[in-house]
Specification:
The structure holds 2 protein chains of 2 kinds. By secondary structure, chain A is mainly alpha-helical. Helix content of chain A is 72%, strand content 3%. Classes of the chains: A mainly alpha, B mainly alpha.
Chain lengths: 620, 103
């Protein structure tokens, strides 16, 4: 367990080596360094995890102080790693899924000229993400937070020669940066009010000094939440995520599905003691999560790019996590994080595997009939889709979504539960729409090539996990096992279990099945294909654009800003100094007209001047 | 023998104005130089008149200075005139206008 510091350090080392010596290393060495650094970190994490389960440290917390970073009166920041069940869960997910995605990338990016640069960025991302989750101090967490933001920027704009990718990278960076300003303000508020940014000390001080529902805890929680909303692509800061799909597919799998976008969920869960003091903010989290999951699910129905379907589904699933956080179901949110990380990484990787064989096509209508042509990708995608749609019993997503819906029901909030169950129905429809379009029907494009072991192994492992991992925590009618919630108890506190009416459980089972049936029915009726051929109606255009948030922000924020810039580019503040200069040049222009070159006129002026001078001397 | 001082003073003023008038109206630089000489003479006349009025020899000393100055100035002026004539083949002062403002 004393090797904890190696977990973030190894990927950082890998990133440094690849970043400095990358192009000279060649493909093979880059791939080995890139994958091995994360793989070793995963091995250490697994070892620590096993030790933890056998013999948990006292208090189920392990702290490793590395060194003191800032030591000022009123503020001291230690670089320290803080490991508890929550951080351990995140670390395991990041390193294990990270390793699989690195392995996948070694084959996926085979022909890319920026091969070593890709692994350098990816390693740097893993290092920053691990620092984020292992941070014992909010300042260190913020360093990791900004680090993953930078890596997201670099990787979204990885193919920077296309200006559209650069624009998408900037958008993702700028939108999250806006959220980060709020988060930074929250950190400053906490440090000035409570005098510490060490997470545990801060939480203890908050419970001691702040009343529940007071102004300060509400404000601090709201500011932290805005940071989390931006990072996790929740309404109203969700617009960057679909555009972020411009990056390579393994990047989307690692950053924009499994790990970074769930940083907001982690932040709220990590500081949940503070959020418990702010009931209004909690309500806002739940409502925002419900809104996001509905909006994103509706938008997912209309996408024609396979990665955008998955992007909206990510947004929607994180909406579920926020919904769970909003009703205080911390372990349900983290359980959904776990299953979502597995099945969404699986979906993205299989989508990448499909488009690899189709000359990097991503339009689902250009696919079709791939079930027999690419059976490995088909099964992987199908398992992922079933898990996303929460197909009862056989998929991991079912168990976590059932847990969230049950907790939301017993919160109690019927409106939020209705939103959740509607979202579950829509999720099943849009993801199986993609399944039917891509894998069934006539073949549109003939795939070429074959998969290597580095593609198949991650897909197989993730698919197995997507089938099995749900059994860590089962609803009452399947045994009521609570291994996962028990594991997290030290971090999140014990979650009281409420009996959930059979009807509610049944609705949770039926919604996905109904959704799949609807998607199948519409597929048989040829509705989806017709949808692609007809010109889109205004409604479907609105849905496809994600309810027009981009257009609204464009009109409300971007246009006025550009107008202001156009006004300010000539520096009105400089008017005083430029006016002096232009007065001088104007006077100069008028006076030089007297320079006529006519001798007699000069004489006349001299005479007149002399007379005037004399007159002044005599009469003044 | 004393003459009333206003008379030569008026003569000096008339001479000065005459010179100034020539300076303002004449184009030919020879006449301009002559006008300047007339004005200097007017100044010299005023000096002696003033010396006479207050019974002070300084006025006459100043007149000798003025003559010296006029001689030196005339020599220089004529040299400049010759240079100008060599260069521009004219004695018109308005032709020497290279330093004017060219819009």
């Amino acid at each position: 367990m004393t090797l904890l510091w190696l977990i973030p350090f190894l990927p950082l080392l890998g990133a440094t080596i690849l970043g400095l010596a990358g192009p000279t290393l060649g493909h093979r060495a880059s791939a080995i360094i890139g994958t091995a650094s994360v793989g070793l970190a995963a091995l250490i994490a697994i070892t620590i995890g096993v030790q933890w389960l056998q013999r948990p440290p006292p208090g189920e917390v392990f702290t490793q102080n590395l060194w003191t970073w800032v030591n000022l009166p009123g503020l001291s920041v230690n670089i320290s790693l803080y490991l508890d069940p929550l951080a351990l869960l995140m670390t395991l997910v990041i390193t294990i899924i990270g390793t699989l995605i690195h392995l996948f990338s070694t084959e996926y990016m085979q022909d890319d000229p920026g091969y070593s640069r890709f692994f350098a960025y990816l390693n740097l991302f893993v290092a920053a993400m691990l620092l984020l989750v292992l941070a014992g101090d909010l300042v260190i967490l913020f360093v990791g937070w900004e680090g993953v933001g930078v890596c997201s920027y670099l990787l979204v704009g990885f193919w920077f020669s296309d200006p559209a990718n650069g624009a998408a990278a900037q958008k993702s960076f700028i939108v999250t940066r806006i959220a980060d300003i709020a988060m930074l303000a929250g950190l400053l508020l906490l440090s000035t009010q409570l005098g510490t940014l060490n997470i545990q000390a801060m939480l203890a001080a908050a419970t001691l000094h702040w009343p529940r529902g007071g102004m300060l805890p509400e404000l601090a929680a709201a500011l932290l939440l805005i940071g989390g909303l931006g990072k996790s692509a929740q309404v109203p800061l969700q617009t960057w995520l679909p555009d972020a799909m411009a990056g390579p597919t393994p990047v989307s799998a690692l950053i924009h599905a499994a790990t970074m976008v769930t940083a907001g969920v982690y932040l709220v869960a990590r500081t949940h003691v503070l959020f418990l003091l702010a009931p209004d903010v909690m309500r806002a989290i739940a409502i925002g999560g419900a809104l996001t999951l509905l909006i994103a699910a509706l938008a997912g129905l209309m996408q024609s790019d396979i990665k955008r379907v998955l992007a909206y589904s990510t947004m929607s699933q994180i909406g579920y996590m926020f919904l769970a956080l909003g009703v205080g179901a911390w372990s349900a949110a983290m359980f959904h994080f776990l299953t979502h990380a597995v099945f969404k990484a699986l979906l993205f990787l299989s989508a990448g595997a499909i488009s690899m064989r189709l000359h990097h096509a991503q339009n689902i209508f250009a696919m079709g009939g791939l079930r027999d042509r690419l059976p490995a990708a088909f099964w992987a995608f199908l398992i992922g889709a079933a898990s996303l749609a929460a197909l009862p019993v056989v998929s991991a997503g079912f168990f976590s979504k059932e847990m969230i819906l049950g907790d939301v029901w017993s919160a109690p909030s019927i409106a939020l539960w209705t939103a959740g169950i509607t979202g579950a129905l829509l999720t099943a429809i849009y993801i199986f729409r993609a399944v039917f379009i891509v894998f069934f029907g006539p073949v549109s494009t003939e795939p070429s090539g074959a998969y290597g072991i580095r593609i198949l192994l991650p897909l197989a492992l993730l698919a197995t996990a997507a089938l099995a991992i749900g059994w860590l925590q089962t609803p009452d009618f399947l045994g009521g096992r609570t291994l996962f919630a028990q594991f997290l108890t030290a971090s999140t506190g014990a979650t009281p279990r409420h009996p959930i009416p059979t009807l509610i459980t049944l609705a949770g089972c039926l919604a996905p099945i109904t959704g799949i049936a609807i998607a199948f029915g519409l597929h048989r009726a040829g509705f989806w294909q017709a949808q692609a051929q007809q010109p889109p109606s205004p409604l479907s255009r609105l849905l496809r654009s994600g309810l027009g948030f981009d257009a609204i922000y464009d009109a409300l924020l971007v246009k006025p800003y550009l107008w202001l810039v156009a006004v300010l580019r000539h520096d009105p503040a400089d008017l005083i100094s430029t006016a002096l200069a232009s007065a001088a040049t104007g006077a100069h222009r008028r006076l030089r007209a007297t320079q006529t070159g006519k001798l007699r006129r000069y004489i006349a002026w001299i005479t007149a001047g002399s007379i005037a001078t004399l007159a002044m001397l005599l009469f003044a | 023998m004393t003459i009333a001082w206003p008379l030569p003073a008026a003569l000096a003023l008339a001479l000065f104005l005459l010179g100034l008038l020539g300076l303002l109206t004449r184009k030919n630089l020879v006449f301009v130089l002559m006008s300047i000489e007339i004005m200097l003479n007017a100044a010299g006349l005023l000096f002696i008149t003033a010396g006479m009025r207050w019974g002070n020899p300084d006025g006459q000393i100043m007149l000798i200075f003025v003559f010296n100055l006029a001689g030196a100035e005339l020599a220089l002026g004529l040299v400049l005139l010759l240079r100008l004539r060599n260069r521009l083949a004219t004695l018109d002062g308005d032709a020497a206008n290279l330093l004017r403002d060219t819009p």
